[in-house]
Automatic annotation (TrEMBL), chain A:
Coiled coil feature spans: none
Name of the protein in question: Non-structural maintenance of chromosomes element 1 homolog
Gene Ontology CC: chromosome, telomeric region; nucleus; Smc5-Smc6 complex
GO biological process, one term: double-strand break repair via homologous recombination
Stretches with biased composition (Low complexity): 223-249
EC number of this enzyme: 2.3.2.27
Annotated segments matching region Disordered: 222-265
Automatic annotation (TrEMBL), chain B:
Species annotation: Daphnia magna
InterPro entries: MAGE, MAGE_WH1, MAGE_WH2, MHD_dom
Taxonomic superkingdom: Eukaryota
Listed name of the protein: MAGE domain-containing protein
Transmembrane segments: none
Length: 265, 238
């Protein structure tokens, strides 16, 4: 039996299934009328998961590939038949959605431009450009996709709940060899090709755990044209999403990456 | 002769030896499997109700029978009862059934959400819904569509933009009923409150909303205030 506060929080999560850790702290404070101390947020998630088990729902968390912050998502733990039939998207919209997912996972940057998404409507029956724009807005509002500076990428919700579908859309999709979570925004070791998150390999000071080669920089394998804005943004140590760093477009740099400036060696 | 239970999941032939023992254990397994599957069926039904509730669409019994694997006429009542208990215990939703015959359900929220924790889009559609319901109520329960379009227009909601919302979505969500006025040419429609509106909102709530729009305290609405008051007293008595 859930307490009133737990019911309130669960109802909120039905409405907004994806929340950051900071959001969750605010939600806790709204329901319990005080700040959550230390482990209380984790305990909350644990107790909610116990309550959610009979419904085959669960709150999972992982780090966001853009800013390395922890996000929580209320997801479906089963491939629910009924859920498939009550999809919020029309068949044409769903076709666009799958195309967007496929483009995202097959790219290194883990993103696709929103303009390309809209233009894809030419290849989908019963979908005009206006429909495509509306569909894209729907995908953003329902927290499956993010858009920043014209580039569309996956939210943590999509990474957590759609993993089986994503792996079907691209057979090469792998987990990051360091954190073992799905790596959609990835970099590959120039020596052995193993795939990692930028944050993960940066933490290991660019030494590949598979072949032990130390990369010269995170940019080694990318040509300047591949440096998309999302890659630039993910290198900032400031988690605030409203800031766009003024990074010198300097291409290859020797020595440690931007991330390592705080560490001594 | 050995008993074989009325198993839907007949496995391959049991061996000759200890056939009756095997039949008993396979019956036990079958019952255990039915119980495990039932949990899964209940989970699917719970999820279906929750998804439909987000859209505010009523759930039809026929759709549940069609879409949820493992549900049957036999286990329907049990499954719904379990789902009902769960939805109340964990989410604070009351499962309400309209019309025992054709059977459709909505979820009614029993939980008061704190103001700084929004749980639905308090958006334009909600405002338009309340405006329409108020207009119907102030018209003693039935109002012609043209008056509704006029009212919305005056308040800045262009009818062309919201016709589908009012005549299609709200009707599907059981908030509003449409009736074609007989012998009207071109056909015009009357609006009345739908069953969901009757269950979900009190007349007092709607009157309070209308009072704000008209800048007049609810008590000054004469017979309508009396109606709202009577309804309140009837609810308390139950």
């Amino acid at each position: 039996m859930a307490s009133d506060q737990q019911k309130q929080i669960l109802q909120y999560l039905l409405y907004k299934p994806l929340v950051s850790l900071k959001d969750l702290e605010k939600i806790y404070a709204a329901a319990y009328e005080r700040q959550g101390r230390g482990e209380e947020i984790r305990d909350l998630v644990r107790s909610l998961n116990d309550l959610l088990k009979p419904a085959q729902l669960g709150i999972k968390s992982r780090l966001c590939e853009d800013n390395n912050e922890e996000y929580f998502a209320l997801i479906n733990m089963i491939e629910s038949e009924a859920a498939k039939h009550t999809s919020e998207f029309s068949p044409a919209e769903f076709e666009l959605f799958k195309w967007v997912l496929k483009e995202i996972v097959s790219s290194e940057s883990g993103s696709v431009s929103s303009i390309d998404c809209i233009n894809q409507s030419s290849y989908i029956q019963k979908l005009t450009k206006t429909d495509a724009q509306k569909a894209l807005d729907k995908f953003l509002a329902s927290q499956w996709l993010n858009e920043r500076e014209g580039e569309v990428s996956l939210t943590v919700r999509a990474l957590l709940e759609l993993e089986p579908l994503l792996k079907k859309l691209d057979e090469d999709l792998q987990n990051c060899k360091i954190c073992n979570k799905l790596a959609v925004k990835k970099v590959a070791c120039p020596n052995c090709g193993a795939k990692f998150h930028r944050y993960c390999i940066s933490k290991l000071k660019l030494k590949c755990p598979a072949c032990h080669r130390v990369w010269r920089s995170l940019e080694e394998e990318s040509t300047p044209s591949q440096m998309s804005l999302s890659q630039t943004l993910s290198q900032t140590s400031n988690p605030s999403t409203s800031q766009v760093p003024n990074r010198r477009n300097g291409g290859i740099r020797r020595g440690r990456s931007h991330m390592e400036s705080d560490d001594s060696e | 002769m050995s008993r074989r239970g009325s198993s839907q999941k007949q496995s391959s032939q049991p061996s000759q030896r200890n056939q009756s023992q095997k039949a008993n254990s396979s019956q036990f397994q079958q019952t255990a499997q039915e119980i495990i599957d039932l949990d899964r069926v209940v989970a699917e039904v719970i999820q279906y109700f929750l998804i439909m509730e987000q859209k505010k669409f009523p759930v039809k019994r026929n759709d549940v029978m069609k879409l949820v694997p493992g549900i049957s006429a036999k286990n329907f009542k049990t499954v719904i009862a379990q789902a009902q208990t769960y939805l109340d215990d964990v989410f604070g939703y009351l499962l309400h059934e309209f019309d025992e015959k054709s059977g459709h359900y909505v979820l009614l929220n029993q939980v008061i959400m704190p103001e700084n924790l929004p749980h639905q889009d308090l958006s334009e559609s909600n405002t338009i819904l309340f405006l329409t319901l108020s207009a119907i109520f102030l018209s003693e329960g039935c109002i012609g569509e043209d008056e509704v379009w006029n009212m919305l227009d005056i308040l800045g909601y262009k009818p062309e933009n919201h016709k589908k919302l009012v005549t299609s979505d709200f009707v599907r969500q059981l908030y509003i009923n449409l009736e074609v006025i007989p012998q009207s040419d071109p056909p015009r429609m009357n609006f009345t409150w739908g069953e969901r509106a009757t269950i979900e909102f009190t007349k007092k709530e709607i009157l309070a909303f209308a009072a704000k729009i008209y800048g007049q305290p609810p008590e000054q609405f004469g017979t309508l205030w009396n109606l709202a008051d009577k309804e309140d007293k009837a609810r308390e008595a139950n």
